[in-house]
Amino acid sequence: MKTTCGTDMIEIERIQQSIEHLGQKFLKKIYTENEITYCESKKTQKYQHYAARFAAKEATFKALSEIINDIDGYWQFFETVNDNMGKPHMHIHYPIKGIKNIEMSISHCKAYAIAMVIVTYEEQ
Fold it and tell me: Which of 14, 65, 85, 117 has the greatest count of CB atoms below 10 A from its CB?
């Protein structure tokens, strides 16, 4: 059994600019329909939520970097969903063997979003 950690922090303005300049092309490449619906529901704070989910995907990839090679083209395989209490969880829609548990925490303020992910998996 192995435990790994990934963390990522991003400027919210960077995500906002990408969305404003690339629009649906960027959104559809990075986010699932559920994530887009969730973030858009946040109205004036939507960019903070988009950035937090971007950071969560990056942090997850970093935590899994020993068992997956490349995230390019696979952004939507990583989906952040909230449970009934609002706690975020990472759902992976891609067959990665051996994952036993994923714990995640995300946060954001006016300028930055951050995510930390801890993965426990069986070494292959």
Answer: 117
Q: How far apart are CA 121 and CA 43, in angstroms?
A: 37
pLDDT at 103 over 70: yes
With CA atoms as reference, report the closest residue to 105 among 122, 80, 75: 80
Question: Nearest-CA neighbor of 62 among 123, 4, 122, 2?
Answer: 4
Is pLDDT at 70 greater than 90 in this prediction? no
pTM: 0.93
Write the secondary structure of the chain as one string of H (helix), E (strand) and C (coil). CEEEEEEEEEEHHHHHHHHHHHCHHHHHHHCCHHHHHHHHCCHHHHHHHHHHHHHHHHHHHHHCCCCCCCCCCCHHHEEEEECCCCCEEEEECCCCCCEEEEEEEEEECCCEEEEEEEEEECCC
